[in-house]
């Protein structure tokens, strides 16, 4: 698998707001300088560049994993925005993802995910 900072940076620019990008990069780099470079190169410039899944599918997987983990509200909110604004999902489809997850992750985590939807769509 090829890792590319250029492709990673391009992907970040296409899918995230400058403010959101600056926030997560600052959080990672504050105590571990360069940690955000790994995310850009390996995740956005590597994993996301692989064949086999469309961005829409990747966003569904990301939303499911983050909702199931809990405590990841800023990241989940960002992936919800990307799912709708970039990956072509409707708000209703995102909501159905969380409804589908409810028996697996529980009502409290589903409610938390729905709050993230409200933040993503109202913010």
TrEMBL record:
Which InterPro entries has this protein been placed in? 4CMD/NDH-1_regulator, AhpD-like, CMD-like
Pfam families from the entry? Answer: CMD (PF02627)
Q: Which residues form the Carboxymuconolactone decarboxylase-like domain?
A: 42-118
Question: What name does the UniProt record give this protein?
Answer: Carboxymuconolactone decarboxylase family protein
Per the UniProt record, which residue ranges are transmembrane?
none
Tell me where on the tree of life, at the top rank, the source sits: Bacteria
């Amino acid at each position: 698998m090829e890792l590319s900072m250029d492709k990673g940076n391009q992907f970040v620019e296409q899918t995230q707001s400058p403010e959101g990008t600056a926030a997560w990069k600052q959080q990672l780099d504050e105590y571990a300088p360069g940690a955000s470079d790994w995310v850009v190169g390996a995740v956005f410039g590597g994993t996301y560049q692989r064949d086999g899944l469309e961005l829409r599918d990747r966003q569904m997987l990301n939303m499911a994993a983050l909702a199931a983990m809990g405590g990841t509200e800023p990241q989940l909110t960002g992936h919800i925005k990307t799912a709708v604004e970039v990956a072509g999902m409707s708000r209703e489809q995102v909501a159905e993802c969380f409804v589908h997850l409810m028996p697996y992750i529980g009502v409290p985590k589903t409610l938390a995910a729905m709050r993230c939807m409200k933040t993503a769509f109202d913010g």
